[in-house]
Amino acid sequence: MADAVSRAFTMLMATGLSATASAAGMVDPTQPPPGYGMSQHASDPQSPDSISPPQPVRLQMIARDGSTRLAVVNGHRVRPGDAITLDGKSVKVLAIHDDSVELDRDGHPQILELVPHVRLK
To answer: Domain 57-113 belongs to what topology?
Structure first.
């Protein structure tokens, strides 16, 4: 009986090993081909493909505790006077209101609203 169990176990192991070996040569059909998504001109800094698009600025949250306010802009927790980096440039948080945040981007004011106003025509 022990001999039969031993032979069955050996057969089972051999079958499993051969299945693993044959699976190693298979290619996942859902994988993109090598080099997919890479820029053709990645080494050329002037190439339009190598320039990343501007990062959209999103106001995600505003919270307050008494007179202290904080906001989350693109995943960064900020307070008035803080600076964060957006698109490789420093942006200063000027003020945080109940439903908006004022930023200074290169000397130009920008207002982010939690709920953008929709103008009806």
So the answer is: SH3 type barrels. (2.30.30)
